[in-house]
Specification:
- The protein has 200 residues and is mainly alpha-helical.
- The protein has three domains: 1-73, no CATH class; 78-123, no CATH class; 129-192, no CATH class.
- 50% of the residues lie in helices and 0% in strands.
- The chain contains nine helices and no strands.
- The longest helix has 19 residues, at 52-70.
- The radius of gyration is 19 Å and the shape is globular.
């Protein structure tokens, strides 16, 4: 769901779906829904996402994938302290998931939920517009760097866990390092940022 909508909106969608399902957001309940029923849930009384058709299809496919591939238990994706590359690969097997979202999912598991993995080498940054802007303004990459350049720069800077640089860069970009009128004085990277403006 976290694509081309604000993060807050994307992350509220499961909660809103749970409300629309009367509080039951379990895999058995979700598995009982047809593709058309999922779309109705995503649409009524108001659309939960700007791409309702795609997100409905991906959600239904994800539920079926969890049932068929992981015996209805998503935690089997990361069971047994697997290498990070294996976890990212398993997320890539879901319909509609590319490298950015797959890496983001593995990153959240490792960084926020402290899921033990054998390593973190294969968890990259998810180079969105905020991360790109912050890397550019900090002088880590050129302002017009490609996604691949951003990813490999993060790998070079923190090879053990490149994705660890993702959330701080996103946070700085979202809160202070805005495209226009950045609030440099409030930013905790102010003292080391070569483009910081003391008049901001």
């Amino acid at each position: 769901m976290d694509r081309q909508v604000k993060a807050e909106r994307a992350w509220s969608i499961p909660y809103k779906l749970q409300e629309r399902l009367g509080g039951d957001f379990s895999i058995p309940r979700l598995a009982s829904l047809s593709p058309s029923q999922v779309r109705v849930l995503m649409t009524n009384p108001e659309p939960l996402h700007r791409f309702v058709d795609d997100m409905s299809r991906y959600l239904h496919a994800a539920i079926q994938h969890i049932i068929n591939r992981y015996a209805g238990d998503a935690s089997n994706i990361w069971r047994g302290t697997p290498p990070s590359a294996e976890v990212v690969y398993k997320f890539l097997e879901f319909d509609g998931i590319g490298p950015k979202i797959a890496s983001m999912a593995a990153n959240i598991l490792a960084r926020d939920f402290k899921i033990p993995l054998a390593d973190h080498y294969s968890i990259d940054i998810s180079a969105d517009v905020h991360v790109r802007r912050v890397f550019g303004r900090l002088g880590l990459t050129p302002p017009d760097a490609s996604i691949e350049q951003l990813i490999f720069r993060a790998r070079a800077l923190h090879p053990v866990f490149p994705g660890l640089m993702d959330f701080p860069a996103w946070e700085v970009g979202r809160n202070w390092c805005r495209p226009q009128n950045p609030d440099c004085l409030a930013c905790y990277m102010n003292e080391v940022c070569p483009t910081s403006s003391s008049s901001a």
